[in-house]
């Protein structure tokens, strides 16, 4: 036991030394973060494993090896890959970018861990009208991971020492707290605005309407559901401001804003309704 503790401490101090060495270097986004990309990936793996275990225990994680839902995952992966292949995702090759569905029809939500693990609730999928809206939401979540917003917010909320301890396998209680808290993790307005902007940028390299995320807000406004806007898009109090900002960004990009007309999203919804 003593040897294990010593090894953990050596690993922790090794990570700390790496952090001190690398914190002066800029990442692909031009930011200086306390965490390296490798640490992002390691933390994301730990958090994603705990998220999987938590929702699996509740019977809510739709497993990829479940033959009933395999076609839904094929549609989901195709949409994600189109966004990732836009040529605009900085960490496309470094992050894992696996996406999983949580079966909860009452929850309109999605969230991202560090390192590119994306979770989408079935309630959000069933709520959206078309694939362009869904691609816009996924683009927003991909941006949170790609721009490392999740890591920055966790670092602010929990501190670098705790996150480093989790990376080396310590403090499992805090890991569980982080994993269960991701659904309500609140980003600052700058991070939300950047995620909205990059959702447009990512989709501009696809056949989707690049302002697809704006369609989500338009739907909530038309149905007078502003009070129920999901946590992952709720930082700005007025959805109208975000609709305008997203559409302005699309105009600046000069990208397509007509819906793609894809039917695969409807097929995915039908599978989840079975």
UniProtKB/TrEMBL annotation:
Names of the cofactor(s) = Zn(2+)
Q: What does the entry comment about cofactor binding?
A: Binds 1 zinc ion per subunit.
Q: Where is the signal peptide?
A: 1-25
One biological process term in Gene Ontology: proteolysis involved in protein catabolic process
Q: Which Gene3D superfamilies match?
A: Metalloproteases ('zincins'), catalytic domain
Return any one Pfam family short name: Peptidase_M48
Q: Which UniProt keywords apply?
A: Hydrolase, Metal-binding, Metalloprotease, Protease, Signal, Zinc
Where's the Peptidase M48 domain? 75-248
**UniProt-listed InterPro entries:** Mito/Outer_Membr_Metalloprot (IPR051156), Peptidase_M48 (IPR001915)
| PROSITE patterns noted in UniProt | PROKAR_LIPOPROTEIN
Q: Name one GO cellular component term.
A: membrane
**Where are the coiled-coil regions?**
none
Presence of keyword Ribosomal protein: no
The Swiss-Prot or TrEMBL record annotates one GO molecular function as: metalloendopeptidase activity
Region labeled Disordered — which residues?
250-274
UniProt family annotation: Belongs to the peptidase M48 family.
Could you tell me what this protein is called?
Answer: M48 family metalloprotease
Q: Which organism's genome codes for this protein?
A: Adhaeribacter rhizoryzae
């Amino acid at each position: 036991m003593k040897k294990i503790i010593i090894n953990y401490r050596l690993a922790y101090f090794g990570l700390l030394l790496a952090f001190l060495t690398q914190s002066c270097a800029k990442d692909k986004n031009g930011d200086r973060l306390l965490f390296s990309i490798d640490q992002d990936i390691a933390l994301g793996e730990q958090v994603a494993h705990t998220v999987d275990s938590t929702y699996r225990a509740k019977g809510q994680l739709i497993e990829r090896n479940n033959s009933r839902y395999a076609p839904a995952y094929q549609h989901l992966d195709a949409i994600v890959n189109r966004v990732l292949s836009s040529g605009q995702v900085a960490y496309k090759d470094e992050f894992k970018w696996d996406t999983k569905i949580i079966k909860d029809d009452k929850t309109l939500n999605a969230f991202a861990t560090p390192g590119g693990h994306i979770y989408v609730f079935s309630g959000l999928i069933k709520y959206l009208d078309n694939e362009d809206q869904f691609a816009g939401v996924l683009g927003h979540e991909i941006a949170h991971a790609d721009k490392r917003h999740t890591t920055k917010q966790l670092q602010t909320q929990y501190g670098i020492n705790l996150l480093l301890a989790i990376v080396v396998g310590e403090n499992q209680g805090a890991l569980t707290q982080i994993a269960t808290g991701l659904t309500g993790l609140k980003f600052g307005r700058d991070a939300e605005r950047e995620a909205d902007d990059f959702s447009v940028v990512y989709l501009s390299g696809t056949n989707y309407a690049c302002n697809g995320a704006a369609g989500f807000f338009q739907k909530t406004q038309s149905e007078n559901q502003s009070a129920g806007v999901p946590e992952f898009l709720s930082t700005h109090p007025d959805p109208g401001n975000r609709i305008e900002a997203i559409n302005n960004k699309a105009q600046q990009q000069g990208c397509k804003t007509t819906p793609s007309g894809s039917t695969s999203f409807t097929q995915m919804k039908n599978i989840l309704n079975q």
